[in-house]
Write a structure and sequence with these properties.
Length: 270
């Protein structure tokens, strides 16, 4: 048997298949990569693990958007939003028949967390996104046109500006206090909150019934408006993931990509 034939058999028996030069993985609709840029492989690591939501903090510095949580002291050696996320996503999608993952029809979220002035940062983001509009979910004359990637803005959110636009390339991250205000899921697809403002549970032992009831109530409120729920600073443990997953939390926040991937795949096998 020659080397080429051996490699083909190895891939087949290991359950790995190649598509357009990319190793296919199972897309995980509940997996959100918290502060993804802190990973050893920003974006690419999340994609290797099947994540469908990644998070990038951005700063407006000297007329461009850089990925970081805090402004650097001294010389700026930070990567830009374009180089770290937008260009790689564009190249992947254009070489992969218009998809982030082969045969995946769902949304891939890029959550951009503004750490600088809302409207000034958004003005620059709009300018940058025009170059990538053909891979993005967009709104034209108030109507949604779905693309493989949807961007939603968190942090310092330009709520009034985005809400007033009939043509835009972004949506908004919500908060529980935004519920009940008749805000459409097209404008605000996700509701996010700090886990610790809702629950005191640390994810190390069984959750109390009263705590679980609080979580279930919030999930129901969010889902009643057709939105997804994300809780940041949630317990990044197996028992934490189990509680969030079975309660119906849509985007499970993690720094442990491989661990969450293994857990979510185990749920699919049940």
């Amino acid at each position: 048997m020659d080397k080429g034939a051996f490699l083909i058999l190895l891939f087949l028996f290991s359950g790995i298949h190649l598509s357009n030069g990319q190793t296919s993985v199972t897309p995980l609709t509940n997996a959100h990569s918290h502060n993804d840029y802190h990973q050893n492989e920003p974006l690419s690591g999340a994609l290797k693990n099947g994540f469908t939501s990644v998070e990038a903090d951005v700063l407006l510095i000297d007329g461009d958007l850089y990925v970081a949580h805090n402004k650097p002291i001294g010389k700026n050696n930070l990567p830009t939003l374009e180089t770290l996320y937008l260009k790689p996503l564009y190249e992947r999608i254009t070489s992969n028949n218009g998809k982030v993952y082969p045969h995946y029809e769902g949304v891939f979220y890029l959550m951009i967390d503004f750490k600088t002035d809302a409207n000034k940062t958004y003005e620059k983001l709009e300018e940058i996104l025009e170059k990538y509009s053909n891979i993005l979910t967009r709104w034209e004359n108030g109507k949604i046109l779905h693309g493989p990637v949807e961007i939603f803005i968190s942090g310092n959110r330009p709520i009034a500006t985005v809400s007033a636009q009939k043509e835009r390339l972004v949506s908004l991250d919500g908060r529980p206090e935004d519920l009940g205000k008749n805000i459409s899921p097209e404008l605000m697809p996700v509701i996010s909150q700090n886990f610790n403002t809702i629950l005191k549970w640390n994810g190390k032992k069984e959750i109390k019934k009263s705590e679980l009831a609080k979580l279930n109530t919030l999930v129901k409120q969010v889902h009643a408006e057709g939105k997804k729920l994300r809780l940041w600073a949630s317990p990044d443990t197996l028992i934490g993931w189990e509680v969030l997953y079975h309660a119906g939390v849509d985007l499970i926040n993690t720094d442990d990509q491989k661990g969450l991937r293994k857990f979510l795949l185990s749920q699919k096998d049940e």
